[in-house]
Amino acid sequence: VIQHGQGEHAVSTTCAYCGVGCSFRAEMQGETVVRMVPEKTGGANAGHSCVKGRFAFGYATHPDRVTTPMIRESIDEPWRETTWEEAIAFAADRFTAIQAAHGPHTIGGITSSRCTNEEVFVVQKMIRAAFGTNNVDTCARVCHAPTGYGLKQTFGTSAGTQDFQSVEHADVILLIGANPTDGHPVFGSRMKQRLRAGATLIVADPRRIDLVRTPHVQAAHHLALRPGSNVALINAMAHVVMTEGLEDRAFIAERCDPDSFAEWAAFIRQPQNAPEALEGLIGVPAADIRAAARLYATGGNGAIYYGLGVTEHSQGSTMVMGLANLAMATGNIGRRGVGVNPLRGQNNVQGSCDMGSFPHEFSGYRSVTDDTVRATFEAAWGAALQTEPGLRLPNMLDAAVAGTFKGLFIQGEDIAQSDPNTRHVTAALRAMDCVVVMDLFQNETAAYAHVFLPGTSFLEKDGTFTNAERRINRVRPAMRPKTGTHEWQAVCDLATAMGHPMAYDDPSQIMDEIAALTPTFAGVSFDRLDRLGSVQWPCNDAAPEGTPIMHADGFVRGQGRFMVTDFVATEERTTRAFPLILTTGRILSQYNVGAQTRRTANVTWHAEDRLEIHPHDAEVRGIAEGDRVSLASRMGATSLRATLTERVPPGVVYTTFHHPITGANVVTTDRGDWATDCPEYKVTAVQVTLANAP
Ligand code: SF4
Q1: In this predicted structure, what is the pLDDT of residue 473?
Q2: Nearest atom (ligand 1) to Cα of 50
Q3: How much distance in Å is there from the Cα of 40 to the middle of ligand 1?
Q4: Which residue, judged by its Cα, is nearest atom 4 of ligand 1?
Q5: Eight-state DSSP code of residue 165
Q6: pLDDT for res 279
Q7: Which end of the chain is more exposed for a tag (fewer CB within 10 A), N or C?
Q8: How many Cα atoms are found within 13 Å in the side-chain-facing hemisphere of 371?
Q9: Are 491 and 497 in contact, with CB atoms under 8 Å apart?
Q10: How many angstroms does the Cα of residue 590 sit away from the middle of ligand 1?
Q11: Which residues of the chain have pLDDT under 50?
Q12: Which pLDDT belongs to residue 694?
């Protein structure tokens, strides 16, 4: 905190929107933010920012903020404001009663990727130690869980391989299923700079994103693949590499597991994986696939960047492994300018995963079934912990509908708007005996809650966020909690009220506990972060200043493992009734379900979700620009206005999911990734008609 005098001071902190994790200086007049200034010393942003980080902070003081705890006996009753003590006791009594009547596995919780590492850590600790179950999950379930699975299988750890700066050394960028100029704007600008300076770009995306053609940047190839054909495309590219002798034999021999390579090579060389065999399915000419594969393999440093267009599919995990296979086969891993880099969505989705928010893993991605690891946590926490993995969020919701799951603690997530198949989600919430929501606003999910615990904005938090490049940044409080207490404190109070005492004087003590229990965080402390600005994990005795590039000398798992990636078509099929494919995404000025961005001055920009539809598909339906249309799938229907554009190809429509009025996830399918249950948001068969048309 820098004092300027006369009530003015500045606080160095971190943006709470996307996974780029830009550093800012909050310039304050008393407890009022005067402006947010991007920090030139910021490890992720070096003085740059986007419109959200710079201007969209007004939600922190918006009148919609709930600042007093509320309870009610049933969701049909009005809320009653109460004290923190009564709200905590009410929630503890309900959870304890369910535990006693039905057992610990009938309750659980989800952590928030918007919260700090310290806040997330105490929630998963409460669920494991006080609830007595491993039923803990996080919003990564619906976004990058396949990244966690795929990169752990192939490389040995669930994280991107490079720092952002690495892109400045890339010669060829393969950008697949990501739209960084909207989703990760500051990194998108950095990528654009590198492209202007001469790197070559391959875009694989059904939609013509900005980077395909923008001033001074033109992609060498835009592979406008059909939604759902990712794995076929990556297999076809790998086939070209392996049948044209473009592989890096020295890298493979030195760094990779020979048996897995032999099995994968035999698979990928099969004629069924040739571009000519798959071009009809993928919807991209074989010659273009061949040219793109040759360019990636022979164009110098090849860097892969990807987003939810890779993960949110029934084969999301397979696709992540396919990208890892391609990078290993071409030796594009372990140095600057290369790598496999997930562009993670929320500000702390990397951190929420690192902190042990999965039902099968403690912090640092260590299995709950490992007796040695579990014993370490049991000794530290003074609790007997469950030996088997718990339920994932979709399984908790299914069990709730079936009547065998009774209570859920929800930290900073609006699953009634963000998760697929809204009707199923709300039916599950409605069926439970105790739903506790901790959030800034009365969101859609709160309509089904019995306890509302008001949360704090990033301007009130003290802790850390971890961005998409594993960079742990400090978040420092610019104002006191408007709720009268800290989220970590309320969670500790709830755990204590349920019979498992949890107490800390300060969030730095929570980080000290994380460091003591998590080998990849062993060297992390608030003191070190304050001294260095930020560090990228692993940060420990072997790497006291952190690790910008992973797998430099060897893979975390030892040898890199190739995985066979059979293409299996999604079961979501178009029919006469639902002839189009819907895919979803984000725009620059809004953020996810819009809880924050809709409550800032930018509310007038992109004030509604629009449906992008190709002019040909619009014409045959009699739809003109701006018409209100009905969007229907097997799951449900909504309506919104149409934008006619050739950004989407014929047969594909696209929308955002920022506005609850549209509620795009009423329509999306809840089919999931085979390995992780991550929903297939990117492929839903739909019909579009003029609203109110017969
Ligand atoms: Fe915030 Fe992301 Fe924009 Fe940076 S790029 S200012 S982290 S929203």
Answers
A1: 96
A2: 3
A3: 14
A4: 22
A5: G
A6: 97
A7: C
A8: 0
A9: no
A10: 11
A11: 694
A12: 45
DSSP letter for 622, please.
T
Length of the chain in terms of residues written: 694
Ligand 1 near 50 CB (within 6 A): yes
Report the phi/psi class of residue 37: left, alpha or beta, with left for phi > 0 and alpha for psi in -120 to 50.
Answer: beta
Helix axes 422-431, 393-402, angle to 10 degrees: 60
Nearest alpha carbon to residue 441 among 114, 50, 74, 21: 114
Nearest residue CA, atom 6 of ligand 1? 53
Nearest to 323 by CA among 169, 181, 177, 468: 177
Q: Is the CB of 337 under 6 A from ligand 1?
A: no
Burial 524-548 (b: 16+ CB within 10 A, else e): bbbebbeeebbbbbbbbeebeebbb
The per-residue b/e assignment along 23-60, b for 16 or more CB within 10 angstroms, e otherwise, is bbbbbbeeeebeebebbeebbbbbebbbebbbbbbebb
Query: Among 219, 200, 223, which Cα is nearest to 283's?
Result: 223
- Locus of tokens 């049933």: 74
| 380 to 42, 123, 376: CA distances (angstroms) | 35, 16, 6
Structure tokens at 333: 């891993």
For 483-511, letters b (16+ CB in 10 Å) and e give beebbbbbbbbbbbbbebebebeebbebb
List the strands of the sheet with 302-306, edge to edge.
221-223, 200-204, 172-176, 302-306, 340-342
**What's 178's DSSP letter?**
-
My answer on whether omega of the bond before 227 falls inside 30° of 0, hence cis, is no
Task: Give pTM, 2 decimals.
Answer: 0.90
344 token code pair: 């993670």
The pair of structure tokens assigned to 593 is: 């379900």
Report the amino acid identity of residue 15: C
pLDDT digits (tens, 9 = 90+) for 453-472: 999 999 999 999 999 999 99
Q: Is the CB of 20 under 6 A from ligand 1?
A: yes
If one counts every other C-beta atom within 10 angstroms of the C-beta of residue 424, the result is: 18
Cβ–ligand 1 distance for 471 under 6 Å, the answer: no
